[in-house]
Amino acid sequence: MALDRNVVPNDLNAFWMPFTANRQFKKAPRMFVAAEGMFYTTADGRQVLDGTAGLWCCNAGHKRPRIVEAIQKQAAELDYAPAFQMGHPKAFELANRIIDIAPKGIEHVFYTNSGSESVETALKLAIAYHRARGEGTRTRLIGRERGYHGVNFGGISVGGIVNNRKFFGTMLAGVDHLPHTHLPENAFTKGQPEHGAHLADDLERIIALHGPETIAAVIVEPMAGSTGVLLPPKGYLEKLRAITKKHGILLIFDEVITGFGRLGSAFAAQHYDVLPDMMTTAKGLTNGVIPMGAVLTTAEVHDAFMQGPEHMIELFHGYTYSGNPIAAACGIATLETYKEEGLFERAAELAPYWQEALHSLKGLPHVIDIRNEGLIGAVELEPIAGEPTKRAFSAFLECYEKGVLIRTTGDIIAMSPPLIIEKEHIDQLIGTLGDVLKSLA
Ligand code: PLP
Description:
Layout (H helix, E strand, L loop, with lengths): L21 H6 L4 E5 L2 E4 L4 E4 L2 H4 L8 H13 L11 H13 L4 E7 L2 H18 L7 E5 L8 H6 L3 H4 L9 E4 L23 H9 L4 E6 L15 H11 L3 E5 L13 H4 L6 E4 L11 E6 H7 L19 H16 L2 H17 L7 E7 L2 E6 L8 H12 L2 E2 L1 E3 L2 E4 L7 H17 L2
Parallel strand pairs: 3-13, 5-6, 5-7, 7-8, 8-9
Antiparallel strand pairs: 1-2, 2-3, 4-10, 9-10, 11-12, 12-15, 14-15
Helix pairs in contact: 3-12, 4-12, 5-11, 13-15
The structure holds pyridoxal-5'-phosphate.
Pyridoxal-5'-phosphate binds next to α5.
C-alpha cells in the first residue's frame, strides 16, 4: 500500500522498533498518524477500529478532551518538579484518587514510569520489606510460567516467557515458577473456568523445596494477558492468598493490564475479591497517553519502612520522573474520565455481549480455543505445522487491511478494546475477524 510521504518519513532505518519484526515492518510499514475515540487513522487515510486499546492501555479511547486539556494546561503551568525531596500537589492528588478506587486495605502509591518499572519496584520493595522486619533471608521470588512482568531483569526472571528470557544471560537466578493456569480441558470456557484451583497447591511444594524463610514474594498476573488471556480458575487466587499468608510471603498482583476497568471493576483484586499485599499498575493509569506506572501497597508494607531518624531517606529507590507533573495531571484527568463516563461499569455491562460475540467464532477454521473475561478476549489458532506464529500474524495483517486492529501472541489473537466501545464496534471487530479466519490458509 502506498504511503503518504508528506506524513511518513521515507527512511525507516534508524528507529530500531521494540517487539517488532523490523525487517518485515520496514518493507510494508503500518503507520498511524491520528486517533480519536475508537479509531486510528492510518498514513494512507484509512480508519482502523482499535480492538486492543493501543497496547491494552487506552481504556477511555483516544483523544479524550479532558485528558488533552489537562496535559496542555499542566505543561504551561509546571512542567517538571524534582521527584526527590520535593513535591508538587498533583502527584499527591492523583495518589489519593487511586487509593479511592483501590481495594480496601491498599493505602499507598509509589510512582514509576512503566509496567516494567512497577514490577522492579514491587520486587525490590518485597525483599527490602522483609529485611526491614529482620527477615533478610527472604530474597527468593516466585513467578509463574507464561507470566509477563515486563522486560527488565527482575521482570524477566519471575516472568515465564521463554523468548523473553533465553537470550539474556545469567542474572535470572533466585527465582522459581508456578505452573501456568491454562488447562486444555477448559477450552472454550466462557469466563473463569470451574476446574484448576489445585494448580495453586504447587506453591506448597515450591515453598517446601526452598524453605519459606527464603521466599520474599509471589508475583502473578491475576489474569495473564500478554501470553494469551489465561484465566485464573475459580478458587485459584484465593488459594494463592491463603498459602502466601500462611508462610509470611507477600503476594503481588501484576495489574498492569487488569487495572483500571478492564475486567469491569477498577482492579482485578476487586473483581476476584482477593486482596494482595502489592499491586503493580501502569497503562490505563494515564490512558496510555503519558508514560506512568504505580505500585500500590498496603499500610503494612509501607509502614515497615517508616522507621529510623526522620531526616533519613527510608527507601533508596525512585525515578527522575516518578510522579512527573504532566503524567500526574494526565492520570487525574484519566481517572475523572473513567468516573464521569462510568467506564468500569460499562465494561461489566458489555461483558456478556462481548462474550457471546467472541464465542460465536467457535467452529471457524483453525480455532482451537476461545477465552474471555470482562472486556478482554482471546482466540487461539492451531499453528501451521513447522511455522508457529505465522497463522495468527497473517490474521493480524489481514484484519489491519480490513480496518480492525487486533494483537497476536504466538498463535493466539488477543483483543482488549477501549471501554467506550459500542455494540456495533464489537460486531465490526468480531465480524471482520470471523471473515479473516474463514479466508486464512
Ligand atoms: N506487567 C504486565 C502484566 C504487562 O502486561 C506489561 C505490559 O504489557 C508489563 C508488566 C510491562 O509494562 P511496560 O511495557 O509498560 O513496561
